[in-house]
Amino acid sequence: MSDDHHRPIPPSPIERRVAALEELLTERGYVPDGFIDEFNRAYENDIGPMNGAKVVARAWVDPEYKARLLADGSAAIAELGFEGPEGHFIKVVENTADVHNVVVCTLCSCYPWPVLGLPPNWYKDAPYRSRMVREPRALLAEMGCPLDDDVEVRVWDSSAEARYLVLPERPPDTDRLAEEDLAGLVTRDSMIGVARLS
Amino acid sequence: MDGIHDLGGKQGFGAVVVERDEPVFHAPWERVARAVTFAVVGNVPNASSSLFRHAIERMEPAHYLSSSYYEHWLTAAATLAVEAGLVTRQELAERADGPFPLAGPVRAGDVAIPAGHGARFRVGDRVRVRNLHPPGHTRCPGYVRGKVGVVSRLDGEWTIPDVEAHSPVRVPETLYSVRFDTGELWGDGQQAVTVNVDLWDSYLEGL
Q1: Would A4 be classed as within a structural domain?
Q2: Which residue range is the domain that position A145 belongs to?
Q3: What is the value of pTM for the model shown?
Q4: Nearest CA to CA, how far is B26 from chain A (Å)?
Q5: Which residue, among B73, B152, B193, would best test binding to A if mutated, counting the most A CBs under 10 Å from its CB?
Q6: Mind listing the pLDDT tens digit for each residue in B52-99?
Q7: Alpha carbon distances (Å) from B36 to A29, B31, B33, B73, B78
Q8: Is the ipTM of this complex over 0.95?
């Protein structure tokens, strides 16, 4: 191994800017000790699409839960212990053989954090935000989710208070699977609406 | 404001680039920027998500389009920190040992405070989105202004962001989900597609 490997890489401009703001705020007492780790830890470990997958699997096996979930998403999701920022008003929209729902935020990147975690970059970037409201069928096909012409596409621009979670269709031939195994089939993308489960 | 953030329907951005097995944070600075942003928002007057979002919207358009999500957050946080007097622009540039671009100034002036009133529309009503172009914050996307849709849901009353971002006053108003056909929005013949947008009462007028 050469010595070059140990030479520190100089910080990039964005790293210097973040450090500058962090240092100044820390010196003035606005960023308490440990705040950065505490603040992010849950999203790195405990909050992510595996939470939404549990919600979906429960809805698949329990019709009464599903009814509550569709009527009041946040309350039904809280029954499974998932609450917190961006979770105060979650609206669950159900995919069927005839209806496909897909979620976008054209103004920023609103997303139901308690059930999906923090959004992927593509959800926050200009191509997805500009195109999903304009040409959803074409974009869904491009993203690997082609839909038959007779399937109605409902795009939800979640730019106000509601945060949307798509309830995907239960895949065929899964009658014998337990709830935990069903949750393992549910992907993040299926709950945003850019994929269907097969 | 008719800012660069209002991306719905804009053309020319190309393919959606999906990163396989994407990590929650791509670099340590992203997680620092995220937390520091919340520290700033917790220490500025009239803090709200509307205030924060508007700080991002005020970014210079070329900077907005050429920077990542967490650079948006950092820029907004630094802008709000300077505006609230927590730090100065000079301190940031000196400590960063280089330029520290901030968002542009608030140009909203005194925003009109809508009179609170009950829900004016019901499910099934046809409504037109008002052709409003406020200089400040709004959550009425440009691509639905002037367009006609149908109310599909009433979501109760929520504080209107247009006021929240610029005033300590909080005005609760009915929020609706409004369904638009793509022919109305884009003048094309897409079949079986609706676009549903959640809009505050003040954004709408009856037909």
Answers
A1: no
A2: 48-192
A3: 0.96
A4: 10
A5: B193
A6: 999 999 999 999 999 999 999 999 999 999 999 999 999 999 999 999
A7: 12, 9, 5, 9, 9
A8: yes
